[in-house]
Amino acid sequence: MKEQNPIFEKKNVLVTGGAGFLGSHLCERLLREAKVICLDDLSNSSIQNIEHLLQYPDFEFIKYDVNKEIDLDSFDELDKFKVKFQGVQEIYHLSCPTSPKNFENLKLHSLWANSSAMLSTLNLAVKFRAKYVFASSSVVYGEPTPTHKVFKEGEEGIVNHLSPRACYDEGKRFAETCVETYRQVYNLDAKIARVFTTYGPRMKLRDGLLLPDFILDALEGRDLVIYGDENMEQSLCYVTDMVDGLIRLMKSGSSVNLVNLGGDEIYKMKNVAEQIIKMTNSNSQIAIEKPLMFLTAKGMPDLTRSKEQLGWLPLIKLEDGLKKVIDYTIANKELFS
């Protein structure tokens, strides 16, 4: 039987958390091929991240709390996308606070994002028979050890479900269970991306995220602060590579449902800080301060599955990525200050 062509010109894509760091880059990339609906309550993101997208007729931002039931028919702004007729074809669920310094105040938001928002977005996917990608996290594997730093998708991590940060760590595990349960019950094409540490322009500043604060402090001659100890290390993936991985995952067949996405090298944060000092010609020093609850050691992804099933590997070298973030920070330094 001949496959029928869709009766619409462009697909409708919904991105929750679309005004955040990763979400804004995803929205920007999706505009090449789709009409993009960005839902975000701005509780831990910024309208500045998507200000440059508001001019495009194929982009619509709606300030909304996705922990509530989502009725796209109720938004008059979406009439131009013919949502009542066309529905949505893809849903990316990214909304969840990732604030090391403000983690304590956002605990309930993390809990809701990994429970209520899972159900509201998955129910929407069932309604429209939309493909669905959930941005999970490498925290589901637990912390790395000196002898175990690389994680494969089949591994079951150990997470303390009663810890002060369990709303995020155990929350992501429960969120993955939601996705898999909807796959089983509704035969939904729903996928999980286990996202490892990602960096790039538009990361929140003065929020405990190391790289943007390293750069700003180096430019201003202040100490670059590492929270924990000088041996702290993690993998790093540039944001455009991560966006490419998420889109490839969405486009993959229904048999692909879980992949790691992240950098394939582990870096000592002390070495990265030293590299930033050198690249910015700064006289700054490195300081060590007590650990932040949300900022813990993370391992490195085994990328065998993403390479074989998605044809994906990160391409941007650390030095090239850092230069892009440094240039962005210099260009926007007054706004940041």
Summarize the structure.
By secondary structure, the protein is an alpha/beta fold. 34% of the residues lie in helices and 18% in strands.
Show the helix and strand layout:
Layout: E1 11-16, H1 21-30, E2 34-40, E3 59-63, H2 83-86, E4 90-93, H3 107-113, H4 116-128, E5 131-137, E6 150-151, H5 166-186, E7 190-195, E8 198-199, H6 210-220, E9 224-227, E10 233-235, E11 237-238, H7 239-251, E12 258-261, E13 266-268, H8 269-279, E14 286-289, E15 300-301, H9 304-310, H10 318-331, H11 333-336
Parallel strand pairs: 1-2, 1-4, 2-3, 4-5, 5-7, 6-15, 7-12, 8-11, 9-14
Antiparallel strand pairs: 10-13
Keywords: Decarboxylase, Lyase, NAD
Domain NAD-dependent epimerase/dehydratase: 13-262
Protein name: NAD-dependent epimerase/dehydratase family protein
Short descriptors:
globular; 15 strands; 337 residues; disordered N terminus; Rossmann fold
> What profile does the largest beta sheet have?
7 strands, parallel
Judged by helices, strands and strand pairing, the structural class is: alpha/beta
- Cα shape: globular
The number of helical runs is 11
Strand order of the largest sheet: 3-2-1-4-5-7-12
Order of helices and strands: EHEEHEHHEEHEEHEEEHEEHEEHHH
The CATH topology name reads Rossmann fold
CATH class: Alpha Beta
**What is the CATH homologous superfamily assignment?**
NAD(P)-binding Rossmann-like Domain
